[in-house]
Amino acid sequence: MKFFVDTAEVSEIRALAEAGLVDGVTTNPSLIAKSGRRMAEVIAEICAITPGPVSAEVTATDFETMLAEGRYLRGIAPNVAVKVPLTEAGLRTCRALAEEGTPVNVTLCFSPAQALLAAKAGAAFISPFVGRLDDISTDGMGLIADIVQIYRNYPNLKTEVLVASVRHPVHLVQAAKLGAHVATLPPAVIKQLLRHPLTDSGLSAFLADWKKTGQSIL
Ligand code: G3P
Q1: If I label 65, which of 47, 153, 175, 206 is the partner at 20 to 30 A Cα–Cα?
Q2: Which domains can be identified in the chain, with CATH numbers?
Q3: How far apart are the CA of 114 and the centre of ligand 1, in A?
Q4: What is the pTM of this model?
């Protein structure tokens, strides 16, 4: 499973990349706004430190302008993946960019039908938002299960399931069990993944017993 980081904060990406935990990055207009930086500048900097795809989202809503924005974003760096919303204009833009060889991440997906349309439009990634479905008492991971099942029925579909809007480590584990290709994780969730109180207490006990021996390995 690939781990993408869901942030536009370069310092957070750099720290996680140095730990080998970053296969890609996803941003969105809200994350760019939160960074307080110019979009082209921050996307270029993220691309320079990220080994894999970096999603940069268009902000227009009409096909012609979305396509122009997508081509501009793609020109920032060779590892830019253009993000488009799951709308009619967004799918048209996805098809056009995919035919030009640009990887497209279709975002704001909330139903299996939407995911099937995105795959037919040639999306490289589909981003179902599990946390936002959970937030309204709907089974977000159920959507992932449906999409994975549908895509598996049609091997000609090459779209990767990129689980987004991840709120906690259980979402990640469930997504991995379902066979999703990618999860995009807030930095805080990545840090939560490795923590377990029994690991901490077990290590403390080992070190306390070792100290009693008076030995040192080196
Ligand atoms: O960036 C796409 C998605 O991960 C955003 O999730 O619901 O935390 O804003 P959310």
Answers
A1: 47
A2: 2-207 (3.20.20.70)
A3: 17
A4: 0.94
